[in-house]
Amino acid sequence: MFIKSRMSMAVVAAMTSTLALGSAQAADTTVDENLEEVVVTGIAASLGRSIDKKRNSELVSDSITAEDLGKFPDNNIADSLQRIPGVAIDRAGGEGRFVSIRGLGPDFSAVLINGRSPATENEDRAFSFDTLASELVRTVDVFKTSNAGLKEGGLGGTINIITARPFDFDGFHAAGSIKGMYEENSEDTSPQASFIVSNTFNDEKLGVLASLTYQERSSAKYTVENEHISKTTEEPFLNFTNPSQGWAGGYAYSGDGLEEDTYRIQSLYAGITNETRERIGGNLVLQLQATDDLVLTADVIHSKYDSSTSKYSTGSYMWAPTLSPLNQIDEHGFYNVINHGYDAGYNITGYAHLLTTTERPTESNVGGLNAAWDISDEWKMIADISMSDAILDNRGLDRLYIVEFLDRPGYIMTSNGGIPTLEYANPAAITPEMGSANMKDLRARINSNDGVYNKAKNHEFKFDFEWSPADSFLSQVKFGANNTVAEKATEYWKTPDLIRRMYHGLATQQVMDTDAVIKGVLKPGNVFGGLNGDVYMIDPVAYRNWMAENIDGRTRANTPAGIASKAAFIANGSSWDAVKSNDSSTIEEDVTSFYLEAAADTDVFAMPLHVSGGVRYTDTALTSSGTTQVLIGLEREAAEPGRPPSPWLVQQFADEAGTAVAMKNDYDNWLPSLNARLEVTEDFYIRAAFSETLTRPTLTALAPYTSYQTTTTSVRTARGNNPNLKPFVSQNLDLSFEYYYDDANMIAVALYKKDIDDFIVTMSLPETLETIVDVEDPAWRTFTVTRPQNGESATIEGAELNWTHVFENGFGLSGNYTFVNSDASLSAAGAIQRFALPGISDTGNATVFYDKDGLQLRVAYNYRTEFLGRVSNGPSSEPVHYDAYGAVDVSASYDFTDKITVFVEGSNVTGETVNKYGRYKNQFIGFEDTGALYTFGIRAKL
To answer: Pick from 189, 577, 600, 783: most CB atoms within 10 A?
Structure first.
């Protein structure tokens, strides 16, 4: 943990010594249009280029460069980025998807592609790195400090992905690879191929580069999940008057006698997810040296990424844990041993068998025109216009099918860390087996469609001017403007709840045609830490056909609920088709920014000092439109004759189906920055920086949706979003010490501090609803509304240690470790919850490699300490933590000639798993095993 005053004083002292000396050269965050041809390849060469970029940068930054044309260090860009100090990644199916910088989550990382903001297919702002093929990438720069010329949006940092261009090379170059990808869990091998070609013509005044990539993956993931940790006073036990008679003995939920804060696991489900992925991508770049001083570039990147999952799972929801002398409570008030209907007569336990399928069909494009003009010896200009779009086209493509056992003997659950164990009262009554007696007892429960549709598009125009005066105290002045119009439409699709649950609770005694609905038993084996995961496999088509044909045979078909659900089913075309919900929305942001920065060079005691300072002004105009229920009246519910007036108020809406609304918000920010670099010697640099940065609110929090809950004469509550949110704003201090020795060796230490204001948290505050005009008592217009609000502050401090050394004999090593601390942490003492930042964790990486005479070997270890994943989960609002995680990656390649290379690579070769827990480690939340991934193939170049 860092002492804040010392950190602040160190940075301020370093900055103060530069203030009187003026401003220095601003950071060049644009892409170099005239890179020399890279002729040195391999691990050591890639590290050397990355170190050179770090050394020459005006900002605190790190970079990863391609080892050769079409060869990034890892198959996935995020997997490479995790080797950078201060960077952590979130995985999906064992592949890196989201990137966090310096303890702040993916929504706080600004991502650029060739300096442009790409549209994303996610609901919020985070960029999915698994949608972009690594073969297209030339360099990735991670800027951890900011200047006036760097586009705002990254509170944690900014990532700029730079793709290859034809003027990066001389003449004709081509490279391609064919790979096989073997998944350990699925035991499947899938193909992958890439090809990139570049050439220049007409005395190298015209250049063309094109690439194409294709990848398939077929993986399997083993999971065990607990929905949440339950608090006894919130979700009480079931108490029987006469346990030996089961349901007939009388029962009631009982929490009144358990006033102490005790906790328990709520559910336990084990399952296997099979996933197929297909990614097709490519880019096309045209460059023209129009004159000696003008270079024109047109480029487009296309990516099509589709994934499909099919998950069979089984488990039990602990809806009726029982008071029992068998129960045991640990020192934290957690039931590490709990009885759920284990005793004789307690046939109250239900067991579900599920089939869940999901679809993620995405497509994205980024393209633009760029003009780089050397106006004179002193003046340069870059103009850039671009457009991007992205779509997640899932209007109800996900499926959920559930069948269940009811009134079964229960179990005793023991949870002392890791996956809990179950002792069943009667295993034969619940173990899946085709043709068994228990198979005939399966009943229909849930059938539904769901999905999220996102469509985003960005239009961006910017120009940057650079003046380098020949005879002036200032070495450089930069100024420019940027306008970005971004629009994202989000639609939530789901089967109406009446249809989704038209068998749930209404068909408990109806016999199902299990011979048609159940097509087999999936037996994954011992992959769940001793927990039995055998599951009945539902035939989805047969299941839906049977439900549609037997709707009148439900046990409670003639009850009001049964009649209403059948009517809804018929009105929906006798289908489970999803319909768009009222909480869908469209968010448009029109952002205009201007900046000015100046730079100067001077000496301090014969040591070169480079100082740059400037300010960025940004104006954001937001329009949030969608559909919401507009409450216009509250009427007291009619009381029965002879009884007192009812306290309940009947809600009256302008339109029951929802009313179209549009809300506007506008805010502006001034973002100053100051950066200094002192060259103590030719090899030893000290950097200091101050900046203000911002991240705009998450898009889901800006949707104009409000729903109304309890309405009585004394209590009125609602829940909604908040289009009037302001951005997160941070004041940042950075201090970095960097020692460069030999050609590709470096030792660096970086310290940083972020003071973040206007953190967005969920608050419940009184609001007067002016839309309510028809009301008996004006006080009824006041509601307690729960919605996101700006209201918290947080401080993050950290230190990054980084060392790279290449020996003359071909061996080398690279390692880094990042320490992170925040005052917004979750305290375990007394189970007290308060505002906290998820994702705060230390990270470390260590790599040992050999690169000589055509042979390349590498072993890398990546580590992340335990961290808070969610502050509040489930009705009891308990947290979710991730346990520490470390993975080993390996690679080996051999150059048969200077044109042909064979290689093999392995990711997570030790088969490490992801484990989640609640407030304490024995409060199990989740287990995930994605297994190891091996890639082998051949690469060729011309």
So the answer is: 783
Compute the distance between CA of residue 411 and CA of residue 820 in angstroms, rounded to an integer. Answer: 42
DSSP letters of 508-543? TTPPP-HHHHEEEEE---S-STT----EEEE-HHHH
Residue 478's beta-bridge partner residues?
A: 466, 597
- With b for 16 or more beta-carbon neighbours within 10 A and e for fewer, the 453-490 pattern comes to bbbbbbbbebebbbbbeeeeebbbbbbbebbbebbbbb
Between CA 891 and CA 886 the distance in angstroms is: 17
How open is the CA angle 747-752-755, to the nearest 5 degrees?
170
**Residues with Cβ < 8 Å from 622, sequence gap 6 or more?**
587, 588, 589, 590, 664, 665, 666, 702, 723
Q: What is the pLDDT of residues 896-935, one digit of tens each?
A: 998 999 999 999 999 999 999 999 999 999 999 999 999 9
Least confident of 249-263, 466-480, 756-770, 819-833: 249-263
| Residue 927, C-beta contacts closer than 8 angstroms, at least 6 positions apart | 222, 223, 224, 225, 418, 419, 528, 529, 913, 914, 915, 916
Between strands 157-163 and 109-113, the pairing is: parallel
Other Cβ atoms within 10 Å of 19 Cβ, number: 12
> CB count, 10 Å around CB of 422?
19
- Give ∠ CA 393-394-397 in degrees, rounded to 5: 145
Question: Which tokens hold the place of 25?
Answer: 């050269």
Using DSSP bridges, classify how beta strands 782-806 and 745-768 pair: parallel, antiparallel or unpaired.
Answer: antiparallel
- Give the Cβ contact number of residue 541 at 10 Å: 10
For residue 410, what are the contacts with CB-CB under 8 A and spacing of at least 6?
339, 340, 341, 342, 346, 347, 348, 349, 424, 425
Q: What is the DSSP letter of 159?
A: E
Q: Rounded to an integer, what distance in angstroms lies between the CA atom of residue 452 and that of residue 624?
A: 18
- Give me the chain's average pLDDT, please: 88
Q: Which residues contact 739 (CB under 8 A, 6 or more apart)?
A: 683, 684, 685, 746, 747, 748
| Cβ within 8 Å of residue 435, ≥6 positions away | none
Cβ pair 517, 485 in contact under 8 A: no
pLDDT tens digit sequence for 691-702: 999 999 988 889
Looking at 429-577, list the stretches that DSSP marks H as alpha helix, in order from N- to C-terminal side.
437-440, 497-500, 514-517, 540-549, 560-571
Rg of the chain on CA atoms, in Å: 30
Task: Using alpha carbons, select from 319, 309, 227 the residue that is nearest to residue 269.
Answer: 227
Separation of alpha carbons 669 and 664, rounded Å? 17
Q: C-alpha dihedral over 262, 265, 266, 270, to 10 degrees?
A: 180
CB 148 within 8 A of CB 614: yes
Angle at the Cα of 136 (from 284 to 295), degrees rounded to 5?
50
Q: CA-based angle 670:587:796, to the nearest 5?
A: 45
| Contact status, residue 862 vs residue 886, Cβ threshold 8 Å | yes
Q: Which residue has the tokens 């990532």?
A: 159
Enumerate the β-bridge partners of residue 850: 811, 857
CA dihedral 252, 254, 257, 258 (to 10 degrees): 160
Q: CB neighbours of 297 closer than 8 A, spacing ≥ 6?
A: 33, 165, 285, 286, 287, 288, 369, 370, 371, 372
Of 715, 415, 762, 457, the residue nearest 588 (C-alpha): 457
Q: Which residues have a Cβ under 8 Å from the Cβ of 402 and sit 6 or more positions away?
A: 352, 353, 354, 445, 446, 447
Q: Which residues pair with 937 in a beta bridge?
A: 179, 903
Contacts of 903 (CB under 8 A, 6+ apart): 891, 892, 893, 894, 935, 936, 937, 938, 939
The DSSP line for 773-792 is: -EESSGGGGEEEEEEEEEEE
The Cα–Cα gap between 895 and 686 comes to 40
